[in-house]
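job 3f2a | input accepted
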Amino acid sequence: MREMMMMKAFAMGGRAGRCGLPGRRFAHGFGDGDGPRGGGHRGGGRPGGGHGEGGPGDGPWGGSWGGHRGGRHGGGRRGRLLDQGDPRLLALHLLSEKPRHGYELIRAMSDLLGGAYSPSPGMMYPTLSLLEDLGYVARDESEGGRKPYTLTPAGALFLEENRPLVETALQRARSVRDRHRGIPEVEAAMDGLKRALAGRLSRPSLTAQEIAAAAAALNAAAAAIEALPTTAPEDTAMVRATATIATANAARYLTQLCKHWSHRFDVRFDETTGDIPFGDGNSCALTATPEGLGITVTAQDAATLERLQEVVIDHLRRFAFREELGTPDWRAVD
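job 3f2a | predicted structure (334 res):
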């Protein structure tokens, strides 16, 4: 029974042994891994239990992996660079390439993410122990000294059976790497800032007023950078679809969806409207009326549009578990 719970927890990205079986983890690229029925909140696996009140999990391997500033609502919570189950899938993927020691996996994972994050030994080795318990990895006994980890036949079978999840995790890792790729002009400016700070703060006669002025200058620079406009892709290349879901709880579902994604994106919403920017010009606009919840999805291409439609409706159904929602009638928007 315990092994079955651990396998469910691994495949779904949750943890075994906390309030029963973990809830289903959202595995798509536009989710943050904290689905309404997910096990990441202390409320357990009850549908809709406490979501929107707690923050993300408590570490890259059991909760959030790194992060960035969250949405406007809720005081800037930190979101995930990767979904919760991704690091385990990525570790198995890297071991499928060749056997590796723990420190080699740490370095390979950091390289995969373009240096945006590097897991610590305290995070990597417990994960490898879990994979050993599941029978997916083993120590290579043929090696002397430190024994590298190698993928077992059961681990290879798990990767093959979950290839779509692995590919999605790899795509998220590449996106993280691309977002954090260095820009020479910015790096040069940051180096100049570091030199200026080091030169100023190393003076023995530094006064409290000078410290306050330096801090104020840094805060002003940060605010100016955050206020820079974001250039979206050319709107002419975008595709859109809209649907209305008949429900008397449209306002509540709008708020729940927006709070959910505010962990990762700069979401803006009020009682009747919501805007969720998924990045790269992809977005979802929500409108709550007495008749139902209006949903308009915008994407770069038809494939992304279809996927986003599934993602939004999947999340909506989880929040609306107490009622039976009809099948959405998506209509193209010119």
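job 3f2a | The CA atoms of residues 92 and 239 lie 36 Å apart.
job 3f2a | closed
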